[in-house]
Design brief:
Herpes Virus-1; EC 2.3.2.27; 7 strands; 6 helices; RING-type E3 ubiquitin transferase; zinc-finger; Znf_RING; zinc; 2 domains; 226 residues; 3-stranded antiparallel beta sheet; single chain
Length: 226
């Protein structure tokens, strides 16, 4: 199942306050040496739905990346910077390409806002949450499907072979065959059974259903299609 991405962005004004110049300072304050720090918060969870609902943390990252502020004045350079930043967390290309315009635009607005002109170091928060759903039932179904397609064991017996099997009523000491090894029911004496050419005995209905899926004896793998 595909991973689900969510992301949030904000300007951390509390952090910016520590890097601001006094309001009465004169002249332009934004220089080539001024920076925008992007604080990346990345969380990746594996969400298991079967056999019980539980979440397992796969990765958690908290890193600060400082960039020159003027880097975000050019569309190409800011897009390249955001792309490189998101690539460090192993995000999918589809997610990176879809979110890069939004993140780079938010950063551009921060560095060009007049109210940020006196802030030497801008701080931008970027939180990304990834949830990867996992359901064992889907994996089981997929594995069974592959086995059915690739394993010759699951080639059914021919219709004529199945119809040629003789059904008999099992009599005698119940210890001669404790149980049908397909349904695992112990009582077989007095019931209708089928004895395969290899000598193994099963309930009639049980072995017919089995042979409609596999041409091999479930115990010794004797081939019924020979």
């Amino acid at each position: 199942m595909a991973s689900i991405y969510q992301y949030y962005m904000w300007q951390d004004s509390s952090a910016n306050a520590h890097h601001s110049l006094p309001d009465n300072s004169a002249g332009p304050t934004a220089t080539d040496s001024d920076t925008i720090d992007i604080h990346l918060h990345f969380h990746h969870l594996l969400e298991i739905h079967y056999p019980e609902n539980t979440s397992i943390p796969l990765a958690t990252t908290h890193i600060s990346y400082p960039f020159p502020r003027n880097l975000f004045l050019s569309q190409d350079s800011r897009s390249a910077a955001v792309d490189a930043l998101l690539s460090t967390i192993g995000a999918s290309r589809d997610f990176i390409e879809s979110v890069t315009p939004d993140v780079s635009s938010f950063a551009f607005d921060m560095v060009t806002l007049p109210c940020n002109s006196k802030v030497k170091v801008l701080t931008m928060g970027l939180a990304i949450f990834v949830v990867t759903p996992y359901d064992d039932r889907q994996e089981i179904d997929r594995a069974l499907s592959e086995i059915m397609q690739e394993n010759p064991r699951f080639e059914p017996a021919s219709k004529s072979c199945i119809e040629g099997l003789k059904r008999v009523k099992l009599v005698g000491d119940s210890t001669m065959m404790e149980k049908c090894m397909i349904c695992l029911e112990k009582e077989m004496v007095g019931q209708e059974v089928i004895c395969l050419p290899c000598g193994h005995i099963f309930h009639g209905d049980c072995i017919v259903r089995w042979l409609e899926t596999s041409h091999l004896c479930p115990l010794c793998r004797f081939s019924m299609n020979l």
